[in-house]
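Many introductory courses stop at the sequence. We go one step further.
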Amino acid sequence: MQNGNSDKKMFESSENGGTKTKNLPNRKSKFWAYFWWLFGGVFGAHHFYLDRDDHGLIYLFTLGGYFGAGWFRDLFKIPTYVACANNDRTYLDWFNFQVRTNKKPPFSTVRFLGSSCVSYLFGQLLYLSIPEEEVNGINFRHLLILVPGAIALGTWLVGNVGRERGSLWIPLVASYICYPTLYYIGDESTWMGLMILASYLSFDSFSKEWRLRPRKKKSLRVRMAILTVAILIYSTLWASYFYFNATIVDNDGEEIKLSDAVKHFLTSPIWLDLKSSLEATWQEAQNQGFWAVWRQLIELSDPRGEINAYKILGLSQTASQSEVTSKWRALSRENHPDKIKGTDEERRIAQEKFMEIQQAYEILSSAKNRRQRRNRKSEL
């Protein structure tokens, strides 16, 4: 273990010195940890609050430890994370026992699964983001040489969470040793699985050790810079995948590049009509004001169902109440279920149509009564 003896002596001396954790500045609160866990935990907010930035990045990239699995587990782990962040006496006593009992951190199934998932995500994302076809005459497929590095980075990132740490170089070398097997295996998933396994086993066997020295505190500016760069790289890889390689399947079962489908959509009638409507709405908002346009949009959305009721009865929106009543009576007689002498299915359809007509009439009658009450109040 590198610097193991000096680190251990330092750790033991701090233990024997009886550090009073209540005097430590910037103590973390369980309340705020659970608050950020509940409101932003899937993006790692509670880990960023507890200065566990590597853990927070993992959650940010995997949506809470692979779609909420890690987020739910943290419901029970947050007290331990808070105690670790505050260097509480009970936690330090437990950690000191672990260090004395085990020369290095023991194997953890949870950490192994997390490392495998994150390594696969990084490796697969990089693999998918490399353009399959030439771009402006340039072939980018040689960038596959970076895939083992992405896998090793995932192993190292998970391996350095909390009170454990290790070097990146050992899993990196192990991954690159397995790289040539791609040309013999042929299957990318098996190839990546082999590199992931080699990366983790090498890290667990030869690199992993206890983190005895506390992490050096980084300024908020440095932390934000690291987080921004990581997000930019991660987003760029996804953008490259969607633009160059992602496909969708049409009704004939043929694959179409997503970027081509988006281009064609932007020239389609449905988008041009929608774009024209949005532009007209924007112009009207500039002329009449936002709230006037908003009221018109609410009216057009037919919140009371009056527009649809006129449509069911086959009338225009300018029809009088007497026309509404006359049409309702005619349609009710025509579609009454008792007059249908057909199959059960035909009678069921007639029953549904009949109920739809009655509901439309009730809506328009209620609207008439509501307008009459409003007019009487205005006259008073």
